[in-house]
Specification:
CATH topology of one domain: Beta-galactosidase, Chain A, domain 5
Structural class: alpha+beta
Keywords: Glycosyltransferase, Transferase
GO molecular function, one term: glycosyltransferase activity
GO biological process, one term: carbohydrate metabolic process
CATH class of one domain: Mainly Beta
Protein name: Cellobiose phosphorylase
CATH superfamily of one domain: Glycoside hydrolase, family 65, N-terminal domain
Organism: Agathobacter ruminis
Length: 896
């Protein structure tokens, strides 16, 4: 499996030899202060703080390898053309697939990359390490040159890094003109670019940002500098064959200034002589700051090799500490693969859904759905601080149950939409409850439901169908009739989100699709489209919220709700059966809260509200079972997932069967599908959707037509992105749904297929981790920044290993297959729960299969545990009384 990409040691460190042969490879590196970089095996890629502040020129997936600029280091020795330590000279690139091809080996771990280039044109080896210190907006690039020959090697050398220094918008908007704003200078061996103005979507503003670089070599400063890109590459050269290095063109000295030109961070060092076996380090640091005084502080303690090594070690340790989940199964590759799945939510926290080459859509930040799903992983790995994060996130909910879609830079900061377009994704109201429920299960903190939070307010009203003409730009939060900011409990927010969704239905009495649901590309059925899939999902929310309120009622027999919300609680006999009435009712509620609310809250018995929600959830499931089940004459069956803009069901059985995965996921997960129907869904999904060559279950089979009455996805090539790719997120949720219903073998098939496809480098062509999807030929695309990682992690911990919280109690109920235990019948997981460290060890000496084994006995720190209904429950109160300094060890013996 791991022919080309292999793990070395723990903490996810991996190695890939011959990495320069693969066009789509890039690696994410970031710090905590805002700098985010993408770097290829040959040190191309970009670095940026945000959309408006790029240190290097922005690159997308289409041009990351095609453009000629990179972070480069040149060696100029007599008798040879200038040689690149990154393999980025025209001479070296032309030698690909010939006997003169040099080998580049990438070794990488959390937030650092090392490339080793073994010279054939010169008797040397170059080892280049790059990282970003946790607390500095600074790329550190260390190049170590070793003389591998048997004679002294004399050479001059030069760092050559093109600087961009402006907004990504300027790639096509005033590219040349914004270069005229550049003021580039060399002072104390630092090249800095300080544009006079910034031109971007914010307008013309005085610039407040400095882009800079510095280089040195074991105490030796450069003897000259290149600060102008055109002067460096010359009239007939380029960045892979820069004329200045071939013609020995004069460089500039300290004190030089250059105005209005594309900037260059070029540092030329005087001749060095290395004896055989001798090494020398060269260091370049490039960063972003706001004042010249900051530069010295950012470069401090990074001038000597030992200081750089210390900072690298500190950085590596910092990110390793972020991942506190470890696994031991029969497959060591899977255990190490999970190291990267564990780390991917951290990358999404920093990069959002943008700022890597494949994620070239949008202008930064995270969307609403991403915000809540990323919290799932944080709750398992790093729960400290999640409570306040959740509370702040609820401030993005509007009083009509919709929400802001873009999260700002700071906690609790929201925007209506990235592109100022009025849109409503009908699934958005679903995710806050799912994340909040996980939080409560992990902590037992029901009191979070009592926390009061404001509501987001902008010009969108009537669930995005109309505009509030009384709204002003100063009104960011929902106000009452007195002009005061209205606050409601988190429980009220959850009730409003789910009840407003319940009432907003289409002609088939399923929830309206609106502008899209989870599948953003189902965006052309806003008038008559309905999402059967998420009608299932909301039914589960309503039922589980009702169950949670039953528990909440034990200490909170009464709750307060917004006076206007009373209309959403109607439940007269026969009322739910009439779509027209539901549509009138949601409009009635929208009208009541159109601009301001009365600010009056009225009391309800908690039990009464729970019963109301439960009745609505039950009705939805019964309606779905009666109307949306499709029997396949070949065998099996499935649930229709959508209605299109002509009011027709999207899926059908028979000779030209059309099937989508999304509807099956939520039908299974919500328990809308019966156990017998789950079996039939699995049969149909294996027939129509499973493709072993592409990583498992496709999002849909080939509909063979452009469906402009459904969404842009049908205009995509089949097998790409939302149109029939193996979309990791939904494939993982399919597995999670199956596990939750006890279909572990079927769920494992989907999880294992994704893992094996990801790690089969010959097919996936990606570094370890799970990508957004697998496209043509099974190639992994949109690496790292996917919510699939959070769901994969959640499924492995809560379902496979069966370790989960239940209102703060620790529950152990394994669903591991026999093949997942090692030769001795052992499987193990290390994790945190309620602030305590746990090692959970399963012993299955007879290698019994799931469904055949049961928990025979178990101990915690050598004390016997009680087994009840096939699982172990350690109460929250008992855990809180345990010594938090002790790593608690649970041993579970499995037998027939």
């Amino acid at each position: 499996m791991m022919k080309k990409c292999e793990f070395i040691g723990e903490n996810g460190t991996f190695r890939l030899t011959g990495a320069q042969r693969y066009r789509d490879l890039y690696f994410p590196i970031a710090g905590e202060y805002g700098l985010k970089s993408a770097v290829t095996p040959q040190m191309a890629g970009d670095a940026k703080l945000d959309q408006n502040h790029f240190l290097y020129e922005p690159v997308s997936s289409c041009d990351i390898q095609n453009r000629r600029f990179s972070r480069n280091f040149w060696v100029m020795a007599d008798g040879c053309e200038p040689w690149s330590a990154m393999g980025c000279s025209s001479m070296q690139r032309a030698a690909v697939y010939t006997k003169k091809e040099e080998t580049i080996t990438v070794t990488a771990g959390y937030m650092w990359q090392e490339i080793k280039t073994e010279g054939k044109y010169l008797p040397l080896t170059a080892t280049t390490t790059m990282f970003i210190p946790v607390d500095r907006n600074l790329e550190v690039i260390r190049v170590e040159i070793e003389n591998t020959g048997d004679a002294p090697l004399a050479f001059e050398s030069c760092f050559a890094i093109p600087l961009y220094g402006r907004s990504a918008d300027n790639l096509r908007d005033h590219r040349h003109v914004t270069g005229l704003l550049h003021r580039t200078s060399v002072e104390n061996n630092i090249i800095s670019v300080n544009p006079t103005l910034s031109f971007d979507e914010r307008g013309h503003q005085l610039n407040d940002t400095i882009y800079f670089a510095n280089a040195k070599s074991e105490g030796q400063n450069p003897d000259s500098f290149y600060v102008n890109q055109n002067d460096f590459i010359g009239e007939c050269g380029d960045f892979e064959r820069p004329e200045a290095l071939f013609t020995h063109a004069a460089a500039v000295a300290n004190g030089y200034c250059e105005n209005g030109q594309e900037a260059m961070a070029g540092f030329r060092f005087a001749k060095t002589v290395l004896q055989p076996g001798e090494k020398k380090q060269f260091l370049c640091m490039a960063g972003v700051c706001h004042t010249a005084e900051e530069i010295d502080g950012m470069l401090a303690d990074l001038s000597e090799p030992k200081e750089v090594e210390y900072e690298l070690t500190r950085t590596r340790q910092y990110w390793q500490n972020k991942v506190n989940l470890k696994y031991h199964t029969a497959d060591e590759n899977f255990d190490r693969f999970m190291d990267w799945v564990n780390f991917q939510p951290e990358l999404r926290r920093l990069f959002g859904c943008s700022f890597l080459p494949h994620h070239d859509y949008g202008k930064g930040g995270r969307g609403w759905r991403d915000l809540w799903q990323d919290c799932l992983a944080l709750l398992l790995m790093n729960p400290s601080g999640v409570r306040q994060m959740l509370i702040s996130n609820f401030a993005g909910v509007r009083i009509d149950g919709t929400n802001a879609t873009i999260i700002g830079e700071h906690l609790g900061e929201f925007k209506a939409d990235r592109n100022s377009i009025t849109r409503v994704w009908m699934d958005h109201g679903l995710w806050p409850f799912k994340t909040t429920k996980l939080y409560i299960d992990q902590t037992g903190d029901l009191d979070i439901l009592n926390q009061e939070v404001s509501y987001f307010k902008d010009r969108q009203v009537m669930r995005g169908t109309e505009v509030d003409n009384k709204w002003t730009e100063q009104m960011h939060w929902q106000e009452d009739t007195r002009g005061k900011e209205y606050h409601g409990t988190i429980l009220e927010h959850l009730i409003l989100q789910n009840l407003t969704a319940f009432w907003e239905v289409g002609e088939h009495n399923h929830l309206r699709l609106r502008d899209a649901d989870w599948n953003d590309a189902l965006d052309m059925a806003g008038d008559r489209g309905e999402s059967v899939a998420f009608t299932c999902a909301y039914s589960q929310n309503l039922l589980e919220l009702a169950d949670l309120m039953d528990e909440y009622a034990k200490t909170n027999p009464e709750i307060l709700l917004l006076q206007e919300a009373a209309v959403l609680l109607r439940d007269e006999d026969g009322l739910f059966d009439t779509p027209e009435y539901k549509q009138t009712l949601i409009k009635e509620y929208g009208s009541k809260v159109r601009h301001v609310v009365a600010g009056i809250r009225i009391p309800f018995a908690t039990e009464t509200i729970a019963q109301n929600l439960r009745a609505k959830g039950i009705w939805l499931q019964e309606h779905l079972r009666k109307t949306e089940w499709i029997e396949d004459p070949i065998g099996g069956g499935w649930y229709n997932s959508y209605y299109d803009n002509d009011g027709n069901a999207l899926e059908s059985a028979g000779e030209n069967a059309h099937m989508m995965l999304t509807g099956q996921v939520f039908a299974i997960m919500s328990k809308t599908a019966t156990d017998d129907q789950v079996k039939q869904i699995c049969e149909a999904a294996d027939r129509y959707l499973y493709d072993a060559n592409c990583g498992g279950y496709r999002l849909n089979n080939d509909f063979g037509e452009i469906r402009t009455n459904m969404g842009r996805m049908f205009g995509f090539a089949f097998g790409e992105k939302e149109n029939g790719a193996v979309f990791s997120h939904m494939a993982v949720m399919y597995a999670n749904a199956l596990y939750s219903r006890g279909f572990a073998k079927e769920g494992y098939r989907s999880m294992d297929s994704l893992f094996r496809q990801s790690m089969d480098f010959d097919k996936s062509h990606i570094y370890p981790g799970i990508p957004e999807y697998f496209g043509r030929g099974g190639r992994g695309l949109y690496a790292y920044l996917t919510g699939a990682a959070s769901w994969y992690l959640l499924t492995v911990v809560n379902q496979m290993f069966g370790v989960r919280g239940q209102l703060g109690d620790l529950v152990v109920e394994p669903k591991l297959l026999a093949s997942q235990f090692d030769e001795s019948g052992i499987a193990e997981i290390n994790l945190k729960f309620l602030g305590h460290e746990w090692t959970l060890r399963y012993e299955n000496p007879n290698h019994l299969e799931y469904g055949s084994y049961r928990i025979q006995e178990a101990t915690c720190n050598d004390q016997a545990l009680t087994v009840t209904d096939g699982c172990i429950v350690i109460p929250k109160n008992h855990i809180l009384n345990m010594d938090a300094r002790v790593n608690n060890k649970i041993v579970v013996h499995l037998n027939e």
